[in-house]
């Protein structure tokens, strides 16, 4: 893998699950630094104005927030809250950090970061182990699972059964392969007729162009938008369109249990600010994209804006408010993991999240 840089197509499902900070090997040709000057200036002006009215940094409680991967539009609400002074308004000094090689979850569980980004499926691995990490999901960043299978449009793979006699890029994880098997067989297909090939790229569009694989698991908000930005024709179907058991929460904000227990007001304050940040993204996607670009100029501006425009309808979607986790959807997915024997020890399907820190 290459060095720790941020690239136009470098947010892959494999990399999300592994929590790796490595990305692809070539910089985007057009970075966020080339976004409109007016947008960047407005973002900076807004930040300066908000910060001026906030408490001095010495009066603020410090929180380290670890990302799951290099910065992307899943994180925009956090960057907006930081840029516009929402965290400072809540008495917080938030440091946004990138994950170590063993992932964000390990850092949150060890208390090296008080809060950070994880996923319901990844947290299940910890919760089912003999030594579960002490952390809990406290808010959903995106309301529904927006991942699925992307392929070249010319191949006509518009449903799971049609993955037969094609290659699928796998990162060789049990939950991943069980999901593919489940949706293919539910569609009347034969999973054994799919050839599994190693997933060794971070830009899925480039992988499809080079015929490294025919099908790949992606996030619609990034890889599919990347294909559109590159004018590359693809087919895509989502997992939740096949079976709503896969409508689990990915990604979520998680908090270290000891920190949350000892500092509940700080967790609540963080989530209030984050909620304002994501609500800003919903109402002002272009401005929010400019703020992310200003903070991370290595990102591809066109991709960030396209992704932000897609995600504006996904952060809250049909929920009553940003951050809400539905108990039935959470437990249904964990029950599926139990039934498929995909966890080391059976999960308590009703545990792993706590909405008491999320205020209406």
From TrEMBL:
GO biological process, one term: thiamine biosynthetic process
Highest taxon in the source lineage: Bacteria
Region (Disordered): 34-56
SsuA/THI5-like domain location: 72-288
Gene3D superfamilies reported in the protein's UniProt record: Periplasmic binding protein-like II
Alphabetical list of SUPFAM superfamilies matching this protein: Periplasmic binding protein-like II
InterPro entries: NMT1/THI5 (IPR027939), SsuA/THI5 (IPR015168), TAT_signal (IPR006311)
Protein name as it appears in the record: Nitrate ABC transporter substrate-binding protein
């Amino acid at each position: 893998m290459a060095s720790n840089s941020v690239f136009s197509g470098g947010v892959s499902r494999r990399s999300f699950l592994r929590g790796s900070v490595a990305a692809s090997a070539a910089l985007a040709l057009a970075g966020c630094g080339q976004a409109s000057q007016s947008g960047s200036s407005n973002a900076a002006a807004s930040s300066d104005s908000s910060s001026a009215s906030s408490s001095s940094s010495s009066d603020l409680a410090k929180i380290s927030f670890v990302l799951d991967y290099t910065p992307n539009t899943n994180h925009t609400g956090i960057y907006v809250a930081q840029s516009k002074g929402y965290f400072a308004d809540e008495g917080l000094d938030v440091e946004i950090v990138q994950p170590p090689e063993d992932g964000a979850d390990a850092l949150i569980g060890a208390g090296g970061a008080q809060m950070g980004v994880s996923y319901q499926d990844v947290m299940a691995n910890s919760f089912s182990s003999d030594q579960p990490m002490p952390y809990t999901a406290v808010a959903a960043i995106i309301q529904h699972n927006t991942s699925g299978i992307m392929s070249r449009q010319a191949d006509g793979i518009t449903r799971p059964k049609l993955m037969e006699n094609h290659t699928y890029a796998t990162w060789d994880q049990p939950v991943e392969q069980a999901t593919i098997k489940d949706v293919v067989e539910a569609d009347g297909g034969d999973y054994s007729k799919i050839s599994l090939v190693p997933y060794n790229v971070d830009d899925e569009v480039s992988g499809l162009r080079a015929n490294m694989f025919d099908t790949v698991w992606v996030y619609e908000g990034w890889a599919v938008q990347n294909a559109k930005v590159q004018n590359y024709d693809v087919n895509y179907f989502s997992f939740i369109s096949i079976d709503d058991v896969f409508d689990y929460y990915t990604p979520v904000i998680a908090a270290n249990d000891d920190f949350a227990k000892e500092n509940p007001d700080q967790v609540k304050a963080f989530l209030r600010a984050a909620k304002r940040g994501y609500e800003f993204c919903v109402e002002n996607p272009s401005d929010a994209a400019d703020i992310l670009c200003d903070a991370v100029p290595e990102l591809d501006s066109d991709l960030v804006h396209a992704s932000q425009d897609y995600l504006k309808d996904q952060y809250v979607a049909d929920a009553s408010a940003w951050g809400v986790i539905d108990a039935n959807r959470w437990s249904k997915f964990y029950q599926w993991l139990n039934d498929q024997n995909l966890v080391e020890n059976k999960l308590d399907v009703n545990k792993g999240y706590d909405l008491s820190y999320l205020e209406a």
